[in-house]
Amino acid sequence: MNKRFTLKRRSVFIGLALLVALAVLAVFFWPGPDSSNKAPADSGWAKAIPTISVPPAVADKPVDIGIPTKLIVDKMEVSAPVIPLGFADDGSQAVPKSLSETGWWELGSRPGQAGNGVIVGHATSRGKGVFNGLDELAVGDEIVVEGKTGKATFSVTKVEKKPKVDFAEVADDVYRTTGAPGLVLMTCGGWNGEVHEDIIFAYADMLAS
User: Exposure check for the chain: N or C terminus, fewer CB within 10 A?
Assistant: First the structure.
């Protein structure tokens, strides 16, 4: 992340709950009858049997995992330290100094608590940042946040990219501190050869344990 996100302090304390449920319909077919009990060819006895894959249960109550210390995203092959971060000296959101670390916005919600825990990390044009590939996460991919006293598992609900100039439009949602426990991973994208022009967000809901 080559530029820091500029935040309005008021956005940290205002938010709308984001809950997304996913149902997937899979269709399976029975095999045909054997020769000892053969039905007429035009009987149409073989029928498509729909089965519903039930999405994992989303947690509606917070859990206390303590200060987050580790982020695990198997889809991205990420197992990275989490460090608490607040404001930088210039009033913007501080970001990790290391490409291999992630930073939790400690002035907002903890992961597992009401609202969104927000974790940022770097993405680089050379592919060496911890959050390179964040935009390749898909709905249902799992994210684990380990803390000093426990851990919480989250399921991705949405991945989106927005121009940095439009960040204010989503700031309240990203930094909400009320509603069901959620998580937002955030990094820069849209490298134009000089700067990153976009912000990539991965939203996730906490799964019931």
Answer: C
